[in-house]
Design brief:
The complex is a heterodimer. By secondary structure, chain A is an all-alpha fold. Chain A is 60% helix and 0% strand. The radius of gyration of chain B is 19 Å and the shape is globular. The chains are: A mainly alpha, B mainly alpha.
Amino acid sequence: MRGRSTQTPADPEERPIDVDPHAMGDLIEESQDIHHDAMAATAVSLEEMVETGQEARAHGLIDPEESRQVAARRSTMMTGAAFGGGLLAAAGIAGALEALFASPAFAASATDVQILQTASSIEVLAVATYKTALTLPFIGGSAANPVVKAFATTTMQQHMQHLAAFNAAITGLGGKAQNNPDPALQKVVAAAVPGLTSAGPVVALALELEQGAAETYVADVAALSDANAKKVTASIMGVEAQHASVLLAVQALLNANAPQLITLAAGNVANLPAAAGSVGFPDAFYPTDQARPATEGALS
Amino acid sequence: MRRRTSTTEVMAISEHELTVMTNDLEQIHHDVGMPAMEAAIDEWTERTRSSRRGFLIGAGAVAGSAALVAVGTGGSAAWAGTSSKKTGKLKGDLAVAALAASLENLAVAAYGDVLKAATAGKLGTVPPAVATFATTVKAQHAQHAQAWNSAIVAAGHKAITTTDPVLTPIVVADFKKVKNVVGAAKLALVLEDDAAATYQSAISAVKATSSVKVAASIQPVEMQHAAILNFVLGQYPVPNAFSPLKGARPLTDYTKG
């Protein structure tokens, strides 16, 4: 069976804590095959965006009043300006919404571009953060749990794909691709880096980023005007939520001093405590209180 | 890495700490997630009441339609729902809401039967984490169904209490083949993937922003259910960089019901 060690010693202490790296590779490869199928729908949306964007610009379909409505709509998605006491709470967001309102007449597409640029900036930061984490011996080195290492590696790649998708959407709408990190979150990450001395703080930081990304995109799908931009964002938000879910489970097992249970070995579920069955999805409805302001990562 | 002297000790400590964490997260959910969704529903409800004839792009019912009757005959009353209620056919966003509610009802019924089978010893040894998962997820799906139904009821229609009529017989047939936890998890994964894809599709299908908000607040949660199920099955928990639309249920599931 995939991912299962060949022998399971009777003594729990002697059980291998990690899966076979080759089996993990097979799992990742299989996942990527599935992914290519999933990518097809997103690619179609991006292609349509390019065509629609070109057509709209050719016909001058920019409506200032619509732009104001879009901006107001985005603001209503922001259910709170605070970050609930998490790491990202330190990131100042004051003034972002104010700036949105104060700005003169955004075109709807311009507002969409700003939202997408912020999304790109979040992805840039996520890629950089995972890249940094993978340089740490307990995340990407020989001392790392193979599942955690594989997760960090794969998740970084997925964020790179998200970045490419968001930037393609931006250029499809006639905007400029964003390849710089979210400036507010970058400060948060920079402040956290010195404290990344074990897996726990890394997981906590990654969780904050993933949760913030997922919530931002949940808010964005209701705020975006362009149908294809909405589709692209909708195809990414749940993936970030899955990243958060995995990190919640990993964090719980680390906090419980049970890192040996962080494994994809078949049958491992029998060893998990009951609470592990629900720790990965704390909300029946995904919140948006940690959504980033729409213009936070927008290019001026 | 710190090792403990026995698995039992590890699990006992893990159990306590994880339970505390879960309780904290549930509190956060009530403080944060639920109010946001309720705001969207309230927005939907308020606007529906103020324009009964059609805030939701033709919210009016088509008279004389039969109830949305689940066709499952799996021997469990939960699968069939309450077919005695008459529910007019809905249109527009409300039809999407009806489809979503019927999918959620199906999930509730499926997890309910899994738990019954587990209790009856029909699935072999059931790990505690699996029992917790099924119980918690079932409750969340019930909340999802309630959310959609609150909007439907607010628009003057009867709540959808039946299960998706097209998918139900398939799930019922598959459930009969389930003999253990792995089989149950695989079946649940299909349901979660289909639900997530349906919501993702719905985001583009509905017109009202409030409808988008509700669908968008649920899709990631179904994705999280799927991630944990993949973990349970020993599969990579985040297989796609972009969530697929494959498996999305068409609106005809509802209109043909």
